[in-house]
Amino acid sequence: MRDIAAELGISHATVSLALRGSNRITEAVRQRVQATAEALGYRPDPMLAALSHYRKGARDGPVTAALAWINAWPHPEHLRSLKEFDQCWTGAQSTAAKFGYALEEFRLGTDHTAESLHEALRARGIHGLLIPPQTAMPDWTGFPWQDYAIVRLGRALPEPRCHLVAADQVANTCLAFRRIREAGYARVGFVSREGESEMDDGHSFQAGCLIAQQQVPPVLRLPVFTTGGICKLQLRSAFLNWVHEHRPDAIFSDDPAIGELIRSTGLRVPEDIGLAISSVLAPTVEAGIDLQPAEIGRVGFLLLNSLLTDRSRGLPDTLRRLLVEGSWQPGKTLPLRA
Fold it and tell me: Quick check: helix, strand or coil at residue 184?
């Protein structure tokens, strides 16, 4: 650091702050220091870095930095009213606190435009954004992505094109089909809500379904029933026709309303048909996949923290997509068959 300081004619303390990405140093000076460090072959000592991290973690110090959780829902209070997304927040917030960060919610669209959001974040010295799933595409017009490290939770929306952490829906669907068959059900059908909204992840579920069906004889491979695009007045009869034609003895679905749809046909769960859901946080179906949303939030923060440590900002050329596998949860809607 003293070599870099001598090269640039600044103090070694300034070099130290610049290498740590401190907001006390201007961006121009940080860039000069980092460029000179690279040219001189500077590398931090990993053992000293580990020791520093241990010493900081060994004492209960105050939170010294903040990260932003961007809520762009039309009714922002609805985001964390959903258990899955509330657990994502809890996993991210508790892990951030261990590293000395406070996770703060900022509301885009209701409290802020993209421009005023940037001003608020800059005033708070915030450079890390965690973006949970949104109900529709937020208006990010004019937002300076190059100033921020960004991680999205979930992959339903295409923008911003940044690193993300999401549930591994392909693996989860394969797991569900395997567990349903192990419970004694042979004809397993998949009901997808693909196309109903921008929030669904139907392609991943259907890919998992196709993989899972390769494990059984062709006669047991049932076509997917898709609720998206079907008028609500015609949905019940279309679904009942599918059931009568293909005779599933169990259904796996990504549609939280699947239980109500089945009951509307006169079929009983589980007496007539077994039922499992892609997220057991849905209120009416007990068997299915636990998506581990708290772990998704935790890993989301860890990825964001790695970007901040690496001083990596802006929308990347090469994306990182970290997938978290869920676990199977049995329940009364899918009892074991003799």
Answer: coil
pLDDT number for residue 200: 46
Domains and CATH numbers, the chain: 2-43 (1.10.260.40), 65-168+294-327 (3.40.50.2300), 169-291 (3.40.50.2300)
**Cβ(206)–Cβ(194) under 8 Å?**
yes
Query: Residue 278: which of 287, 267, 269 has the closest Cα?
Result: 287
Span 128-142, pLDDT tens digits: 999 999 988 999 999
Closest Cα to residue 153, out of 140, 134, 172, 166? Answer: 166
Decide: helix, strand or coil at residue 310: coil
Round to whole Å and give the CA distance between 141 and 296. 28
> What is the distance between the alpha carbons of residues 174 and 177, in angstroms, rounded to a whole number?
5
> Would you give the distance in Å from CA 103 to the centre of its chain?
16
Hey, what's the torsion of the CAs at 84, 86, 88, 93, to 10 degrees?
Answer: -170
